[in-house]
Design a protein that fits this description.
Elements (H helix, E strand, L loop, with lengths): L20 H4 L5 H11 L5 H11 L2 E12 L8 E11 L2 E10 L8 H4 L5 H14 L10 H17 L3 E8 L7 H10 L10 E4 L5 E8 L8
Parallel strand pairs: 3-4, 4-6
Antiparallel strand pairs: 1-2, 2-3, 5-6
Helix pairs in contact: 5-6
């Protein structure tokens, strides 16, 4: 695959990167909603920028890539972030993986994902836990949160960034599935506060941020 990036002409350009565009590109669903929110912004969506700036100082978006894939050990399937963003802060360069949500859940728990697990799955889980500094992972943690957060750290290593972050960009008015995010954050050793970014120390000594950004509901209607 070429490493040449083509500038986006608008939200509809994001559709072709989806695994199942006919199913996923629908009004009110996360893929389309997220595309409109990010394309409408001058730089970063304001609620996302606020989290980043609160964690690491003023944030300048260098570039964003929809449906970016990060390779993981233990199998051929990558972690596919809804958005990958490279951001410049006063404190240094940061790599962010963004997970868009409306009403969709985070997918299987670790316990569910491990049913009939191959050696490759066991290898992958061990890698993720070591990278994140987790000694024991409860079965009710959502697997997607593990690999999406790990992807931010993997990309930080690749770009030579000292900062990394995983942000859930939610457009659910009820904040659905936030309890899964908070459970994961507590597993990482964080104290969870509403609307505040969470900064965590990880074994690589990079500074990691976790955040929940509530997006404007208007983008669900586009």
């Amino acid at each position: 695959m070429s490493r040449v990036l083509i500038p986006s002409g608008g939200p509809d350009d994001w559709r072709r990167f989806l695994a199942k565009p006919d199913l996923q590109w629908s009004m009110g669903f996360s893929a389309r909603t997220l595309a409109h929110a990010w394309e409408d912004a001058t730089g970063l969506p304001p609620e996302v920028e606020a989290l980043m700036s609160s964690a690491f100082g003023p944030a300048e978006l260098l570039f964003a890539i929809p449906e970016h894939k990060t390779a993981l050990p233990g199998g051929g399937r990558e972690s596919q972030s809804d958005v990958f963003a490279l951001v410049k802060h006063e404190e240094g360069l940061a790599t962010y993986t963004i997970e868009g949500k409306v009403d969709e859940p985070f997918g299987p728990t670790v316990e569910e994902w491990l049913v009939g697990a191959s050696a490759g799955k066991q290898e992958r889980l061990t890698f993720l836990l070591d990278l994140l500094g987790i000694d024991q992972c409860p079965g009710d943690i959502r697997y997607q949160l593990l690999h999406r957060t790990a992807s931010a750290l993997i990309e930080a290593e690749r770009f030579g960034a000292s900062l990394a972050g995983m942000i859930v960009h939610s457009f659910s008015p009820e904040g659905r599935w936030r309890e899964d995010f908070e459970r994961f954050a507590r597993l990482m050793g964080a104290a969870v506060e509403a609307h505040a970014p969470i900064t965590i120390a990880v074994p690589s000594r990079k500074r990691l941020m976790l955040g929940w950004a509530s997006g404007d509901q208007c983008f669900r209607q586009r």
